[in-house]
């Protein structure tokens, strides 16, 4: 089986509304869909763009980072030069980056990021291929032992995709923790899966939760409140452990999902509101994503390619 997508956001799976999500669509009881948002007046859009610029200039906690350039996709070998080029673009605006793999060149990202003064949430991708999983785990441990992982995430939405059984995931987590006892180790998944899998929750040093109001059909106007409720549900089962929002975001264009409508205004407002909440409540948030990724067209519909703060060529989208 070919290797799954290394930085796939939660959204494509959340859209199916799996049992336990209790998402906005379910809470809304099938209410009629809202009309598309009105196009903001030029003056209002200019004000939002300036607020976005100021928010980004002030610096954010973290960004989900992928170095793929045009023509690349998971399975492509990424070079140190392209990683460094993309890191240089985002370095002035973020304190942390989150990565999704430690193979195919991605193992160089944490070292290069540290060299630029960025902290790293290093991800090891786990899927159905056990040989690939072993390679990822070994590479992630090597990165951490070299001192380039400030946090380590073993697996991303493995339970959501049902790629591994709970006991298999636990084994990978426990092996990572034993190998790098000085590095906090956790697991990334949708918020409600930490409720459904208490043994995974107990095994984590830190919980990393993906929160996507967009993929649960939530209108933008209610999205921040709904995202906060996702975070609260994770806190409720964390037992005092740190909870990180490992992914959240809003696309600027593409196909709507029920009450969630992509738009420039929505993307700007969601970013501004999320960063304000993160700062005021001291909640670590990794915003999805640094860059648009053209390869996602088709995998998640046209909307999948447009979650970045910079476009696929590394140009600011909201300058």
Main features:
319 residues; TIM Barrel; eight-stranded parallel barrel; globular; disordered N terminus
Structure description:
This protein is α/β, with parallel strands linked by helices. The protein is 39% helix and 13% strand. The protein has a single domain (42-70, 77-305), classed as Glycosidases (TIM Barrel). The protein has an 8-stranded parallel beta barrel with strand order 1-2-3-4-5-6-7-8, surrounded by 6 helices. α3 packs parallel to α12 (264-281). It is globular and about 55 Å long. The protein starts with 10 loop residues before the first helix and ends in a 32-residue tail after the last strand.
CATH topology: TIM Barrel
Radius of gyration: 18 Å
Side by side, the strands of the main sheet go 1-2-3-4-5-6-7-8
**Uncertain residue ranges:** 1-18, 28-32
- CATH architecture name: Alpha-Beta Barrel
Oligomeric composition of the shown chains: single chain
CATH class: Alpha Beta
Structural class based on helices, strands and sheet pairing: alpha/beta
Arithmetic mean pLDDT? 91
Report the helical percentage. 25-40%
Strand residue percentage: 5-15%
List the helices and strands and how they pair.
Blueprint: H1 11-14, H2 24-28, H3 42-58, E1 60-64, H4 80-90, E2 94-98, H5 109-115, E3 119-124, H6 130-145, E4 151-156, H7 158-161, H8 166-179, E5 185-190, H9 193-196, H10 198-203, E6 206-210, H11 220-237, E7 242-248, H12 264-281, E8 285-287
Parallel strand pairs: 1-2, 1-8, 2-3, 3-4, 4-5, 5-6, 6-7, 7-8
Helix pairs in contact: 3-12, 11-12
């Amino acid at each position: 089986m070919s290797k799954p997508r290394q930085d796939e956001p939660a959204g494509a799976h959340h859209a199916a509304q799996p049992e336990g999500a209790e998402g906005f669509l379910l809470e809304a009881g099938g209410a009629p869909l809202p009309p598309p948002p009105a196009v903001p007046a030029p003056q209002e859009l200019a004000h939002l763009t300036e607020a976005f610029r100021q928010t980004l200039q002030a610096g954010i906690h973290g960004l989900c980072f992928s170095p793929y350039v045009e023509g690349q996709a998971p399975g492509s070998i990424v070079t140190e030069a392209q990683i460094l080029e993309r890191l240089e673009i985002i370095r002035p605006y973020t304190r942390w980056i989150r990565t999704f793999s430690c193979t195919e060149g991605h193992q160089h990202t944490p070292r290069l990021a540290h060299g630029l003064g960025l902290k790293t949430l290093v991800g090891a991708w786990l899927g159905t291929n056990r040989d690939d999983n072993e390679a990822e785990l070994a590479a992630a441990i090597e990165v951490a032992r070299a001192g380039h992982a400030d946090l380590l995430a073993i697996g991303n939405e493995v339970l959501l995709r049902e790629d591994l059984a709970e006991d298999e995931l636990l084994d990978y987590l426990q092996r990572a923790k034993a190998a790098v006892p000085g590095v906090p180790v956790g697991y990334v998944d949708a918020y409600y899966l930490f409720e459904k899998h208490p043994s995974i929750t107990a095994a984590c040093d830190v919980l990393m939760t993906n929160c996507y109001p967009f993929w649960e059909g939530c209108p933008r106007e209610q999205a921040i409140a709904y995202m906060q409720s996702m975070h609260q549900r994770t806190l409720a089962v964390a037992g005092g452990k740190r909870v990180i929002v490992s992914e959240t975001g809003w696309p600027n264009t593409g196909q709507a999902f029920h009450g969630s409508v992509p738009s420039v205004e929505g993307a700007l407002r969601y970013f501004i509101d999320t960063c304000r909440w993160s700062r005021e409540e001291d909640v670590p948030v990794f915003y999805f994503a640094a860059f648009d990724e053209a390869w996602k067209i088709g995998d998640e519909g046209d909307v999948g390619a447009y979650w970045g703060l910079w476009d696929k060529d590394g140009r600011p989208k909201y300058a």
